[in-house]
Amino acid sequence: MTKIDFYTGSTDKLRTACQLSHKAMQNGVRTVISAHDVATADALDRLLWHYPATAFIPHCRSNAAEAEQMPVVLNNGSEKFPHHDLLISLHNECVPFFSRFERVIEIISQDAEDSRLGRERYKFYKDRGYELRHIDLTSAQST
Question: I want to staple 59 with a disulfide (CB 3.0 to 4.6 A). Which of 19, 72, 93, 135 is the partner?
């Protein structure tokens, strides 16, 4: 069954997605980052070219020919994925394909509406018996 982690209190959801995908890549875990729209996917694509400052996260779009070889794949709208290790969701609702992945990360910002939507997703997963874990980023980001 899919394991689901909630990272709450993010000051920058895209940067948090970059940090988590970089950590996953270092641990040999392939990642799909799913954005709710093209603009978010484009912004994430630009950020991944420069994150971290001293390295590079190899990535491409999910429909690219080289997607199967990439450790990080960006998705918006497709339900065809080259692998199913880790999904980082940047959506405001539970995506219908989440259960295809071994692990899902939901990133929640400090915004009140985003927090409310995150609580709804947490309840959705909990009501269906998924294993949930919560990581509070507020203390980690203030250091």
Answer: 72
Q: Work out whether strand 103-109 and strand 3-10 pair parallel, antiparallel, or are unpaired.
A: parallel
Residues 6+ apart with CB under 8 A from 66: 60
Closest CA to 10 of 2, 19, 22: 19
Distance between CA atoms of residues 64 and 61, nearest Å: 5
Query: Is residue 10 helix, strand or coil?
Result: strand
CATH 3.40.50.10110 fits 3-141, yes or no: yes
d(CA 12, CA 131): 25
pLDDT, tens only, 68-124: 999 999 998 888 899 999 999 999 999 999 999 999 999 999 999 999 999 999 999
H helix intervals, the chain:
13-26, 38-48, 112-127, 138-141
- pLDDT tens, residue by residue, 33-74: 999 999 999 999 999 988 877 777 899 999 899 999 999 999
